[in-house]
Design goal:
Oligomer: single chain
Number of helices: 11
Distance between the termini: 23 Å
Strand content: 15-25%
CATH topology of the largest domain: Rossmann fold
CATH superfamily of the largest domain: HUPs
Shape: elongated
Low-confidence stretches: none
Mean pLDDT: 91
Strand order of the largest sheet: 1-4-3-2-5-6
Length: 333
């Protein structure tokens, strides 16, 4: 379900400054990278309990991603960094999000201490909701069963949410979404998310080659671990509160320099200066792989076809859900 966004929303990064407005509330606990359909089953369960008891509901999550701490040589492709998670949590109707700094020291807290010191003392929870596979504390001793028993001992309720499956009966997971994006299967990734995947980045100066070709682009440098397939995409972009349709290229520009990966957005029917502004890009569809062309003329001819295909795809878009509409706007917005 998708709830109206709360009029006030708490962003908490320090347990010692935990807001009174969230104390005695219902907490949904998890990493929530992607805040996909499975994660939202946990959030929805927390909201249902909170509404039934007249209490605030919020999420407790962790930054950076635990794999970045324990395996820094294998950085994870983040679907929703902290700011994106907060945006989605608010759109889901939560009253706040608590982001715990994840360090080796934090990971070494005994499971009993996590419950007593953080859940009870710092946050004063009345109820906790987690997914079936959530673990916490040193050596991952804090299992769902452990949390249930701890709740019974400490006087708070616990709900464990089972796996959310897709229409084919396969579990919805962040790893499946990353794999789909790596293959350019945007339709599957977005279906598993329940909204169209988006990211934010600053527009940087480039070599102006797109302008010379008649296709000026906003250049966005994504984190090097971004696992999105190189190729051409239909996108919607929000900048300065205004939505625009666009066509984008993500890759190394093999026709020219074969350089570092760059996400280049051409906004359709737009003219203006976008440099140094923050852009949010909604990835609506994958049009084709990145290709090398024998000439600039051949590339421009293909770009003309890509733009026409992007226009057609974007003209036919409808929101995937109420959450998608809330996050990414509808056609014409």
């Amino acid at each position: 379900m998708s709830e109206p966004a709360p009029t006030s929303f708490s962003l908490v990064t320090d347990f010692d400054a935990f807001p009174e407005a969230l104390r005695g509330g219902v907490v949904a606990i998890g990493n929530f990278d992607g805040v996909h359909r499975g994660h939202r089953a946990v959030l929805d369960a927390a909201l249902a309990v909170a509404h039934g008891k007249g209490l605030p509901a919020y999420a407790l999550t962790f930054e950076p991603h635990p794999r970045s701490v324990f395996a820094p040589d294998r950085p994870v492709f983040r679907l929703t960094p902290a700011d994106a998670k907060a945006r989605i949590a608010r759109a889901c109707g939560l009253d706040g999000i608590v982001t715990a700094p994840f360090t080796r020291a934090f990971a070494s807290i005994e499971a009993e201490d996590f419950v007593a010191r953080i859940l009870k003392d710092k946050m004063g929870i009345v109820h906790a909701v987690t997914g079936y596979d959530f673990h916490f504390g040193r050596a991952r001793r804090g299992t769902p069963d452990f949390l249930v028993a701890s709740g019974q001992a400490e006087g708070f309720g616990v709900t464990i949410v089972r796996a959310e499956t897709d229409e084919g009966g396969e579990a919805v997971s962040s790893s499946r979404i990353r794999a789909a994006l790596a293959e350019g299967d945007v339709a599957l990734a977005n279906a598993l998310l329940g909204y169209r995947w988006f990211f934010e980045a600053d527009v940087t100066h480039g070599d102006k080659r797109g302008r010379d070709l008649g296709y000026p682009t906003a250049n966005l440098a994504l984190p090097p671990e971004t696992g999105l397939a190189h190729g051409i995409y239909a996108v919607r972009a929000e900048i300065g509160g205004v939505w625009h349709d666009g066509v984008a290229s993500f890759g190394r520009r093999p026709t020219f320099d074969n350089g570092a990966p760059l996400f280049e957005v051409h906004l359709l029917d737009f003219s203006g200066d976008l440099y140094d502004q923050r852009m949010r890009v909604v990835v609506a569809g994958h049009l084709r792989p990145e290709l090398r062309f024998d000439s600039a003329e051949a590339l421009v001819a293909q770009m003309d076809r890509d733009s026409a295909e992007a226009r057609a795809l974007l003209a036919s878009l409808t929101p995937l859900s109420a959450l998608d509409l809330s996050l990414n706007g509808g056609p014409g917005q």
